Amino acid sequence: MFVSQDELLWMLRQLYGHRMTRDKLLSKLSNHGIYSLFPYFDGIASLFQQQADKIGVIEKAVRALAARVNRDLAVPAVISSEMSYPALKKHLLPVLIQALGLEDCVGLKTGARVRVKMASANIHVKPGSEGFIIDQAAGASQVRFYSTAGRFSVDLFNKELADQELEVVTPEQLLARHQDLHGVADYFLNDVLLRAMRASLDSSVYAFAAERAVQFLLDSGFLKVDGAELVAVLERIFPVLAPECDKAYRDQNLFSSPTLSSPPSERKAHVLRLELTTGCDYNQCTFCSEYTDLPAETKSFAEFKAHVDGVAESIGAEKSRIQRLFIGSGNSLGVATELLLSSLDYAREIFAPQKISLYGRTASILEKSVDELKRLKEAGLSLIYWGLESGSDAVLNYINKDCTRADMIAAAQKLVEAEIDVSAMLMPGVGGLKFSERHVAGTLELLHSIDIKYLTLLSINPAKTSVYERNMLAEKGNRHLTPDEVNAQVYALLEGLQPTGVQIGMFTEEIDQASSNTRRFNCQFTAANKEQVLREFWHG
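Below the sequence we write its predicted structure tokens.
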């Protein structure tokens, strides 16, 4: 089954970070139209039989087929208003197969079948459009397009494009799409017939293509079934949306880890992760095993500059899509201010991001003066991801955090003065049953004392080998909370929280693979919607 690259990318962008019912996804795909799957429609024969002007349809189709093979094709002499779809195929498929078998042009030269590169920024022809080169000039080619991405029509047009925006579509690639020459010919014929009959296409064609698209996404591993919902598989989708970034992240000469621990919202195709530090300079929180095998190291500016240059070269054309930067790893805010400033300046010079974010620990915030934080803000730092985990001193001590609630409140005030936004993380369930009530009470006191823009709830999910897990198993009178008890704790937090307008998110595996969340929501927590949020969360 062939799905065009432009439509595949569109579908994956709709799926990334989402879960939805099959019916909702079908509706979305059907409304959009997955045109590259139309030729598989099983009602073409019936649709053709209903045409009032069969001869006109056939003539249009033959002209379009001639453009598909870049050769003149004669209208079958036997055509009539009584001709059936099987009879038409019987006459046209052998001619098409023969013409396709003669295709052997390689390289960007006259007669070559070409496609506009997906990275093309041409404003006149969309990426993925296909045609044949009919003339050439220095560094450019005149292309007669037979298929335009994003449009379902029979219109043919010529356009000159720079050669660097084109790539050859080889006979081998056509065969890979459709198995053999008969498959290519059959697909082309069905496609041009449907385009010639487009005025007669109804919702059944769009619905059929949507069903095929969902099956394709499931078969290809982009989706998986979770109960009554379909869930996006991020590790399968990201390499398709950002193949060069994915390749760069896996290059051990550029990154110490292919995952480079980062918040879920920074694992997107338009966000580039850079590595100023590796590991975590504290690395003693009992629940965390993220950095166990990564020594805490900080690059010099020369090393970071070389890293940035290497990443920029590696991702090539994808550089133009980068909108945000995340500077990793575990606590980049802890880097000396002058080094961090130089690093931010250089990264911003190379990638021109709209926003830059990083992780910061409470101790690192407190170590910076307000003036230093303001300078970092001026250098492009717009958001700090901050792991609060809990507002209870007893819980903080239990998990060996090196700070208190009072420290967090003081740190938050500094960030307010510096006008740097905060995305804070809390850990429902941390401390287990023994500390559950203190966790809620202390956390509410903390949240009512600080000003943050975003709050993410990440239910504790310790590794079996973590110190936290060993302590919990060895401790008498304590145990992990059950999923229902964790959700009850979250409800208590929301119920007691003053609705200040903070954006609160709790995500399941389609976005967050680190926590053990079993429920999800994402909303701005206001007085107007607090009761609704509580009601919807309670009922799951």
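The chain is about 40% helix and 15% strand.
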